[in-house]
Amino acid sequence: GNTRESDSKTFIPIDGQQRLTTLFLLHWYFAAWAGKLDDENKKILERFQYETRFVTTEFCSKLVNDVEINLKDLIKSNKTIIDEIKDYYWFFSTYEYDASIKSMLVMLQEIHDYVKGLSDKAKVDTYFEILSSNDCPINFLFLNIDDVGLTDEIYIKMNARGKALTRFENYKAQLTAYLAKKDKDFSNEFLDKLN
């Protein structure tokens, strides 16, 4: 990922969209469950945006700022969280055709169904606190592509098939960067033989 020079607190990943979106949805859901969608947490959650998808960013903003669902009551009803969100006046038909928004709604329903199936729902009250603590069990390995000398284009090309890179591919990318600094011609010849 890269950070913008103008705002060092902006993280722009080039991979991991689904994982990061799921993490955003978990934070939103469990904050809403625990009644912790206060102004401070809304401000943090609203920073989650899609660089190239205005409609998806708009939906995320509406979810954070305009959705007020008592999830504990919803659990007891037969209504889905998808129906609850679609009932809002601002939920436009364009949202229904956006693949990212459709996936987000499905994931929210999965989270909701998981919670609905738990025998001890009192534990759920602590989930947001756990997610936002320093001891959160979810963490990521961060590889700044600037540090290893790879460009966005190379990484995207290598991962274009949409699958996780193998350990070999990660090693090859690091070896490429290392050898290119030493001897460009040898690096190209050697790496051609690895393909």
Outline the fold blueprint.
Layout: E1 2-4, E2 7-12, H1 17-33, H2 39-45, H3 54-66, H4 71-76, H5 81-86, H6 93-96, H7 99-117, H8 127-131, H9 145-148, H10 152-158, H11 167-182, H12 184-194
Antiparallel strand pairs: 1-2
Helix pairs in contact: 1-7, 11-12
Task: Describe the 3D structure.
The protein is mainly alpha-helical. 59% of the residues lie in helices and 5% in strands. The chain has helices at 17-33, 39-45, 54-66, 71-76, 81-86, 93-96, 99-117, 127-131, 145-148, 152-158, 167-182, 184-194; strands at residues 2-4, 7-12. The longest helix has 19 residues, at 99-117. The relative contact order is 0.11.
Brief summary of the model shown:
Helices cover 59% and strands 5% of the residues. The protein is built from twelve helices and two strands.
- If you average the pLDDT, what whole number results? 81
| Class by alpha and beta content | mainly alpha
Major sheet description: 2 strands, antiparallel
Q: Per the principal axes of the C-alpha atoms, what is the gross shape?
A: elongated
Major sheet: order of its strands? 1-2
Gyration radius, to the nearest Å?
A: 21 Å
Give start-end ranges of low-pLDDT stretches. Answer: 1-7
Measured by DSSP, the beta-strand proportion falls in under 5%
The helix/strand series, from N terminus to C terminus, equals: EEHHHHHHHHHHHH
Tell me roughly what share of residues is in helical segments: 55-70%
How many DSSP H or I helices?
12
Termini separation: 26 Å
Counting DSSP E segments of at least 2 residues, the number of strands comes to: 2
